[in-house]
Amino acid sequence: MSGVGTGTGELEALLGRRWRKPAFIKRPALRWALALGFVVYLIAAVLTIPVDWARVYDGLDRGMAFIGAFAHPDFVSRGSDIGEGLLESIVITVAASVVGIAISIPIGLGAARNIAPLPVYLLCRAIIAISRALQEIIVAILLVAIFGFGPLAGFLTLSFATIGFLSKLLAEDIEAMDRVQAEAVRATGARWSQWINYGVQPQVIPRLVGLSMYRVDINFRESAILGLVGAGGIGATLNTAFDRYEYDTAAAILILIIGIVMGLEYLSGLIRTRVQ
Amino acid sequence: MLQLKKLVKTYRTGDQALKMIDLEVPDGQVLALIGPSGAGKSTMIRCINRLVEPSSGEVWLDETELTRLGAGALRRARRKMGMIFQEYALVERLTVMENVLSGRLGYVGFWRSLARRYPQKDVDEAFRLLDRVGLLHMADKRADELSGGQRQRIGICRALIQDPKLLLVDEPTASLDPKTSRQIMRLICELCAERGLAAIINIHDVALAQMFVSRVVGLRFGEIVFDGGPTELSPDKLTEIYGEEDWEATIETVEDETEEAAPVAAVAP
């Protein structure tokens, strides 16, 4: 039996010709113009950044002193300040993570287009957009202005930031779930809450747990930064150490932060493999 | 008795998936719905339990008209319609037992189902069904540890524990090997006979349908173009349903296979 396309000459014309993957941008002129434009812009942009080489030379000493301090960190002389700061950071992290995650779950459900009606979807997406648009530091400065210095502002900031992060990723995971599994549960006559519990929750729980652990990790790191704008925690202690040029104490604090973040990372890895 | 009256489904894209379908399925009848991909088979059974909303027409299950039911009444009506899916559609991260018991969700309250504290008679029935399909020892395994044929058996248990009057079966064998396909089809048909259930089975495999069911309905472009016994399917009829092709081979195999069916079953474990 003969093939379908014989006799057209189309095949003969193609045989012996080299084949290349079609380019993403079809017009060669446009493609090259974009590439060249990008390189030119990059060079121009780098050239406009002012560098004061004399200042860099002076600063090298201070930089070296700071880095050198890591060789002999001082945990002791400001020991009680570090202890208090660390404890406050941990309290902020745990409280903000628990509250943030608890609020994120309903908002995440509402922000998934495949399970929420349109008005709820738009409302939840708006909340997420606001939370993500406002950077933590900016929120913290605002909240410090309202509630004064201290951990309350830090706690509220991180709760708010957690909502934007976790709800969005949870909603995306729900939108990517296997529709048929959920459909099968709906076909049994389950009510909405049962449908979520049996059809949706088992599909998204491993990722939700993983993301929550990741967020705890981020919240701890952020709580160290937020202290710099007066929102309490270890960051406040760190800031004070820098202000007093106590690089040994600063190094000790940074080592503690790095240690705790790595510990959390390891823990979250363990938990994630368990819930898969 | 299930009755479809002038059932129409037009998708938002303008595709007319179903055009004025009229169909009656008496109690206890197992019916195979055949037709090419895109003929509207899947849409039709999903319009019956309203996983897809029909555009117009009526669906009667005994004395209830399903297309106009509110949310609560629809849930109660869905309890009477068990559904079996092509890719099994088990919730993979739940255990076998949870998957089977999820068939009772329409009957138990939210808190009971959340705590997995089902009434003892439901639990007993779940064990009986698992035993019936030969998977009692798998009860506490996770659904994704099972093979395709095993998963489909669990899917069947989930549908049956609903205590349905009607089974809606969507391509039950499309993801299975030929031997498992026959076993699953045989199991579905046996269970329907045991319990006096009506069933609509969407199926690609014409020969397999002819082996097991008493009535075949052919769908083409959303219209019923054939309705009769399995032996009435001639090459002409198949051409009408599927389009021009050499059908003699398909029909011959059917006859071969029916003779061959007994030894195959004997070999099966």
TrEMBL record, chain A:
GO terms for cellular component: plasma membrane. The chain crosses the membrane at residues 29-51, 90-110, 248-267. Gene3D superfamilies: MetI-like. It is a multi-pass membrane protein. InterPro entries: MetI-like, MetI-like_sf, PhnE/PtxC. SUPFAM superfamilies: MetI-like. Keywords: Cell membrane, Membrane, Transmembrane, Transmembrane helix, Transport. The keyword Secreted does not apply. Its main location: membrane. It comes from the Bacteria. Residues 86-268 form the ABC transmembrane type-1 domain. GO terms for molecular function: ABC-type phosphonate transporter activity. It is found in: Cell membrane. Belongs to the binding-protein-dependent transport system permease family. This is Phosphonate ABC transporter permease.
UniProtKB/TrEMBL annotation, chain B:
One of its GO terms (cellular component) is membrane. One of its GO terms (molecular function) is ATP binding. Residues 2-246 form the ABC transporter domain. Keywords: ATP-binding, Cell membrane, Membrane, Nucleotide-binding, Translocase, Transport. InterPro entries: AAA+_ATPase (IPR003593), ABC_transporter-like_ATP-bd (IPR003439), ABC_transporter-like_CS (IPR017871), ABC_transpr_PhnC (IPR012693), MetN_ABC_transporter-like (IPR050086), P-loop_NTPase (IPR027417). The keyword Cytoplasm does not apply. CDD domains: ABC_PhnC_transporter (cd03256). The keyword Transcription does not apply. It comes from the Bacteria. Pfam families: ABC_tran. This is Phosphonate ABC transporter ATP-binding protein. It comes from Thioclava dalianensis.
